[in-house]
Specification:
Largest sheet: 14 strands, mixed
Structural class: alpha/beta
Low-confidence stretches: 5-14
Number of domains: 2
Protein name: F-box domain-containing protein
Organism: Pristionchus mayeri
Shape: elongated
Number of strands: 16
């Protein structure tokens, strides 16, 4: 792991005469910016080509209004000892390091080089004192982020809000051994503030009412994946899911589909008996009547053997994995 060293530069503000300029230098600035984005690995070389191209590169480096630069961000750790990992393709790394440099972050962010990607890490102290750095780190990532991973971290949400200011997030992956009300409040805040459409929850237990919060979440997102972790003192034969025993999950799932949600995947290999045959039959009966294209899949022990049949425009597949989905979604997953 090493501190990032970018080549020093100063923004060119003085006018540059047009005599003797190359064809690329004569192009409008926005066109040059698009060319730079197509070859981000060459930004350092472009800066050495001429004063004008150096100016064009530096203009782009300080902008936030660039779509997706970063592939994924992971945030984890304990209070006042949080790590933020930024992963990206090596092709874009030179340009990203220039953006870090323009925001005075090259001295506090470290880089690790892997075979197919580079990882940049910012270790934070007290969040309130780091807010400006977090906002600058977020600004360096552009206006859209593909994936954000959050691990066991009620206390990291202030960092998340500072980091994601002005950024649209496509997919949020959240892991917690025990979900609490504060987790849900923060999770819903991130979803609504950053137009998240896909959420993955990796859960153990829950000390709050998951049904209430799942219904609220389903009004905002289109795709939800829930993975149930093993939980101590819970027998694998128990009808257990998301901190609850003996719940009527079919009713909850059907109500969730009344919102924006149209794709739902439940992976509960720990307690596959959580979904009874009666609940599965209710889902099969009512999903085709909801008037929208839906994709539902869940671990389920209710079917003695694999079976497949159609109900209206829906294909039903029974077995260890139970699913029902509109023909339009046959090859799709949340």
């Amino acid at each position: 792991m090493q501190n990032i060293q970018c080549r020093q530069y100063e923004m060119e503000s003085e006018s540059i005469p047009v005599q003797g300029l190359s064809p690329i230098e004569l192009l409008p600035g926005e066109i040059v910016h698009k060319i730079i984005i197509l070859v981000p690995e060459a930004v350092f070389e472009l800066r050495l080509t001429s004063r004008l191209l150096r100016s064009r590169v530096d203009e782009l480096a300080v902008r936030q209004s660039i779509a997706a630069i970063v592939e994924q961000v992971t945030i984890y750790g304990k209070e006042n000892a949080i790590q933020i990992r930024v992963d990206m393709s090596k092709i874009i790394s030179n340009f990203y390091e220039l953006r870090l440099k323009s925001r005075f972050l090259n001295g506090v962010v470290t880089r690790s080089v892997y075979d197919s990607f580079n990882r940049y890490v910012l270790k934070t102290g007290e969040i309130l004192r780091m807010e400006e750095q977090l906002m600058n780190l977020g600004a360096s990532m552009g206006t859209r982020l593909e994936k954000l991973y959050l691990f066991d971290c009620v206390h990291v949400f202030p960092a998340v809000h500072a980091l994601l200011k002005g950024i649209r997030l496509e997919k949020l992956i959240f892991k917690a051994d025990t979900f609490c009300d504060e987790d849900w409040i923060n999770l819903l805040s991130v979803v609504n503030d950053h137009d998240v459409e896909i959420v993955a929850l990796n859960v153990g237990n829950s000390v709050s009412n998951p049904a209430k919060h799942l219904l609220e979440l389903s009004t905002s997102i289109r795709s939800l994946y829930i993975h149930q972790f093993p939980v101590n003192d819970v027998d694998r034969s128990s009808p257990y899911f998301f901190g609850v025993f003996h719940a009527e999950w079919s009713e909850i799932f059907l109500k969730m589909f009344a919102g924006a949600l149209d794709k739902l995947l439940i992976e509960n290999n720990f307690c596959p008996d959580y979904l009874t045959k009666r609940c599965a039959d209710q889902i099969i009966e009512k999903i085709p009547k909801l008037g929208k294209n839906i994709w539902f899949k869940s671990t389920c022990n209710a079917f003695p053997e694999r079976e497949e049949y159609s109900v209206r425009d829906y294909l039903v597949q029974g077995g260890i994995i139970f699913s029902i989905f509109n023909a339009n979604y046959r090859k799709m997953a949340p």
